[in-house]
């Protein structure tokens, strides 16, 4: 019985993760693009920190209030095409 309960819980969690991933692709489009660009090796960690610091200094609450706009601004500052 315990094994079946744990299996049901794991199945439900897996379903939730799939749901988040499918819905999140549109919602987090700019965030995902930023992290893909950072991970691609096209920028150094210093460049990443400078761009993030500049945007955070200019818009201190933007990440907490509108994360997608924050990441869009990062991409624009970095010169990464948005389309």
Detailed description of the structure:
The chain is mostly helical and 83 residues long. The protein contains five helices and no strands. The protein has helices spanning 2-27, 29-39, 45-58, 62-65, 67-78. α2 (29-39) crosses α5 (67-78) and α3 (45-58) packs across α5. The longest helix is centred in the N-terminal third of the chain and has 26 residues, at 2-27. It is elongated, with a radius of gyration of 18 Å. The model has no long low-confidence stretch (mean pLDDT 87).
The major β-sheet equals:
none
**How would you sum up the global shape?**
elongated
* Class per helix and strand makeup: mainly alpha
Low-pLDDT runs of 5+ residues are: none
Q: Roughly how many Å is the radius of gyration? A: 18 Å
List the helices and strands and how they pair.
Layout: H1 2-27, H2 29-39, H3 45-58, H4 62-65, H5 67-78
Helix pairs in contact: 2-5, 3-5
Describe what is shown at a glance.
Helices cover 81% and strands 0% of the residues. With 83 residues, the protein is mainly alpha-helical.
Question: What descriptive keywords fit this protein?
Answer:
elongated, 83 residues, mainly alpha
